[in-house]
Amino acid sequence: MPYVEVKDIIDNAKKYNYGVSFFSVYNLELVQGVIEAAEETNSPIVLTPWNDETFAIGMGIIENICKYFCSNTKIPASFHLDHAADMVNTQ
Known about the structure:
Largest sheet: 3 strands, parallel
Number of helices: 4
Shape: globular
């Protein structure tokens, strides 16, 4: 399934009256695990990169990991960078 914008996931949840889980992730294994669990339960999700480890490896790296998995899953999935201190952290 192609990458889905957070707004579209939230709008659909409001329309059909269901919740959407947001998961804080900071490495490849967490992203992969969350995506696999969401696929098993057919649940849309939003990933939120965060943790000191995220900043250690670079927000840009975790952003690319999230983007890859969100674009290559069977369920609506997205991510947002609300925890980035500034735009520099996303590059």
